[in-house]
Design a protein that fits this description.
By secondary structure, this protein is α+β, with helices and mostly antiparallel strands. It contains 10 helices and 13 strands. It is globular and about 60 Å long. One of its GO terms (molecular function) is protein serine/threonine kinase activity.
């Protein structure tokens, strides 16, 4: 039997403690230099970053078993889940389609292991074909009596997915709750997740052009969440394993279990006060220390993702020597020392076009990684910058042929 692709629909999370990061309150130390050169701004930001937020060297496997451990908060209660069927708001064939448990049961052959494509903290994900021929991913929540976060995360994902529709977001088909079963039905994305491709687990090396397309797709998806939904949505768990790839290597952002509504601008609120959730290595240090969540927390995570795309490394690399374990810190120091080229994923060719993309995307990443949210660009600005970088890259690539 051929190997099954692994997906990240499940949104798994494991506990870690906020004390694994610096807990010093961040304060402004200077203003950006008066210059229009992106590299100058990026170097200023990298200097502040190194001074203000330097993750500890003493990471061990006890702190993080791997870079995919999620930070979970404790919640005192969760809303009740009513037993009813959810409609598929965005289905192409029948916007009023409803699902029954019998249909899901039959489609997965009683949740047979042969249909399983993913496993996470939320539960198990199955690939199945519905009666109308639609291939979907079915997320089956764990039947845990002790996880008081599960019900709220399930409802959060439903409420978020039901109101969004974008080419670069995983499509929502519907949900149902049947006795103690909680089922979410979403689009099946055939080509695995970004992290597996960066690790070459899918057999193909992602070239720079593809990586730029993926970065741009993700930026557009998050821009949509921040600007074109009402109310705006903060994803809160942007990471490479939550970026699914189509067969044409276009990106779709998945897993909205941690999503939160952004503050209502009309009320004058600037942030949402909430306990920390997210994934170690991607967490906004300001959110981590103040518990104040904003759209700029997604921007920070996106900056980590950009570094991941450039280097091929995970945000936390426990098997490397100590000075290279925190990938963004290692990359920033290389940039500051004028040795940017050495961070390029060794699987990528060192060509003029790749070198240009490396410099420009890293400059953007460092702006996203500014320790204070006020210094970070908006996701719309990130999208515009990436669009320009991709255009320049393609032009240089064509002239080099």
């Amino acid at each position: 039997m051929p190997a099954r692709r692994r997906h990240s629909y499940g949104g798994g999370s494991s506990p870690a403690t906020a004390s694994s990061y610096s807990t010093n309150t961040l304060t402004d130390r200077s203003s950006p230099p008066a210059t229009d050169k992106p590299s100058s701004v990026a170097r200023w930001i990298s200097g502040i970053f190194i001074n203000c937020f330097t993750p500890p060297d003493s990471l061990s496997s006890k702190d993080f078993e791997d870079s995919e451990h999620n930070i979970r908060s404790r919640r005192s209660s969760t809303g009740s889940v009513q037993s009813h069927y959810g409609n598929a708001n965005e289905t192409d064939k029948n916007p009023n389609q409803r699902f029954s448990f019998d249909e899901i049961y039959n489609a997965t052959k009683n949740f047979s292991p042969s249909f399983r494509i993913g496993q996470g903290g939320f539960g198990t994900v199955y690939k199945a074909k519905l009666r109308d021929g639609t291939t979907v991913a079915i997320k089956r929540a764990k039947k845990s009596l002790h996880d008081d976060c599960q019900g709220s995360e399930f409802m959060s994902e439903i409420q978020t997915l039901a109101q969004v529709t974008h080419l670069s977001l995983v499509k929502y088909y519907g949900f149902l709750v049947h006795n103690d079963e909680k089922i979410l039905i979403v689009e099946y994305v055939a080509n695995g997740n970004l992290r597996d491709h960066l690790d070459c687990k899918e057999g193909k090396i992602l070239d720079m052009a593809t990586r730029l397309d993926i970065a741009t797709d993700v930026a557009h998806a998050i821009t949509y969440l921040h600007m074109y939904t009402q109310p705006p949505i903060i994803h809160r768990d942007i990471k490479s394993s939550n970026i699914l790839l189509t067969e044409n290597f276009r990106a779709k952002v998945a897993d909205f279990g941690f999503a939160r509504l952004a503050p209502d601008s009309e009320s004058g609120a600037t942030h949402v006060s909430t306990q920390v959730k997210g994934t170690a290595g991607y967490l906004d240090p300001e959110y981590l220390t103040t518990y104040q969540l904003t759209e700029k927390s997604d921007v920070y995570s996106f900056g980590v993702l950009l570094v991941e795309l450039l280097t091929g490394r995970r945000p936390i690399e426990l098997n490397r020597e100590q000075k290279e374990r925190i990938t963004i810190r290692w990359a920033i120091k290389k940039f500051t020392n004028g040795d940017t080229i050495s961070i390029l994923d060794p699987k990528l060719e060192r060509s003029p076009a790749n070198n240009l993309a490396l410099e420009k995307v890293l400059e953007l990443a460092l702006q996203c990684l500014a320790p204070h949210r006020g210094s970070r660009p908006s996701m719309k600005k990130c999208s515009e910058i990436l669009w320009g970088i991709r255009k320049d890259y393609r032009e240089l690539l064509n002239t080099s042929l």
